[in-house]
């Protein structure tokens, strides 16, 4: 029994090939002659033949179900035409947004640098001009000293504002203070409104009116004090306390006047919002189609 | 629509065309998997996975025998399923119940043939169960070749294409598979019908 079960591998292959008709004529003749005088080999052949027959007679297993694929099992997603459009639009808006942010940052840095340069130049000019106008230019002196001590454009700006807002401490500085206030106001309104004889008169016209002949009662008989006040105002307008100081003050005022909202910033905000909206819609479409 | 046209359509993503190929080959694919896995549920899973893989990879099919190409995917899916089962070796009560039910159904089916005697049918059913058990004990490489050639009726050449091995390997594995099956059945000699039992006097 053991000898039969443990046939050499070569004999197994011979018997197997014989059953399948795969032996060459020479090999077949040799095997047939062996089978005549080797009963164990013959018995093994019969058993192997029975095994092959049994394997071939195994019944076909019935299908438990159909294996046809559905789009879901096949991994096919329903294609929404809107998805690629929204995807592209989101990407495009994002690119424009990034470009705008970059541009804004770049231009912002440029303007900051130029402003700082201008401020430092102005500070130096003020410092140089300060000793020349020392007796009269109290404010300029203050600016120059402040610049010298702190050495910063922003600090200077703060100082300017505080200088403008601060009440005059010394009587000698009244005239420059007035001139500065007139120069730093964004509109000529405060300067234009003058109190003449207890009444408020329209600014420049009121200043010019006394020079022209008029039939107005106030013009005919102006009080001496009022006339003097107008004359003083004219003098103070015509002769500023110092050219350098006034120019500096005007320049500073222009620089620190409230700038309108730049269009670049508006575009930036708009495209940022657009990216958020489009991105949300794209994700929603993607979620819906899966 | 012939098979080649269906394959071309499936390559373009036509799922309906591919499903017609599935209908054509699903029985053969499932039976191969079933004999390979010896478990209906695992065989169904492997077959389904194979068809999904086939649909996704049909673009790589470069012509030749579509059946061989498809059954190669089935065999690979069976190997994958076997590996998964090795990682989770515990067999459920459902599987045991399935085996019992299968044997009962086979016996019941056999009894329904009026021409055969009940004793003979029981003997045949027991023999079939023994063969299936012996087949299940074979190493996967031997089992694949035995199922392809002896159960499915493939020739050596096509079996070699399916398992992606040379014909010499197929011959060798088949002979060894048959030898092992013979040994296994001899160990269960009492289960063999009298005409298959060893009888020293006759030799």
Topology:
The complex is a heterodimer of chains A (about 290) and B (about 200).
Chain A: H1 2-5, H2 9-20, H3 25-37, H4 39-56, H5 82-129, H6 138-150, H7 153-165, H8 174-184, H9 189-192, E1 194-196, E2 199-201, H10 203-208, H11 217-220, H12 224-238, H13 243-256, H14 263-289
Antiparallel strand pairs in A: 1-2
Helix pairs in contact in A: 2-4, 3-4, 5-6, 5-13, 5-14, 6-7, 8-13
Chain B: H1 3-11, H2 15-37, H3 40-56, H4 66-87, H5 93-112, H6 118-137, H7 140-151, H8 156-163, H9 167-187
Helix pairs in contact in B: 1-2, 2-3, 2-4, 3-4, 4-8, 5-6, 6-9, 7-9, 8-9
Notes on the protein architecture:
The complex is a heterodimer of chains A (290) and B (203). Chain A is an all-alpha fold and 290 residues long. Chain A is 70% helix and 2% strand. Chain A is built from 14 helices and two strands; from the N terminus they run H-H-H-H-H-H-H-H-H-E-E-H-H-H-H-H. Chain A has helices spanning 2-5, 9-20, 25-37, 39-56, 82-129, 138-150, 153-165, 174-184, 189-192, 203-208, 217-220, 224-238, 243-256, 263-289, and strands spanning 194-196, 199-201. The radius of gyration of chain A is 52 Å and the shape is rod-shaped. Chain A starts with a helix and ends with a helix. The longest helix of chain B is centred in the N-terminal third of the chain and has 23 residues, at 15-37. The radius of gyration of chain B is 19 Å and the shape is globular. Chain B is built from nine helices and no strands. In chain B, helix 4 (66-87) crosses helix 8 (156-163). By secondary structure, chain B is mainly α. The N and C termini of chain B lie far apart (56 Å). The chains are: A mainly alpha (290), B mainly alpha (203). At the A-B interface, helix 2 and helix 4 of A face helix 2, helix 3, helix 6, helix 7 and helix 9 of B.
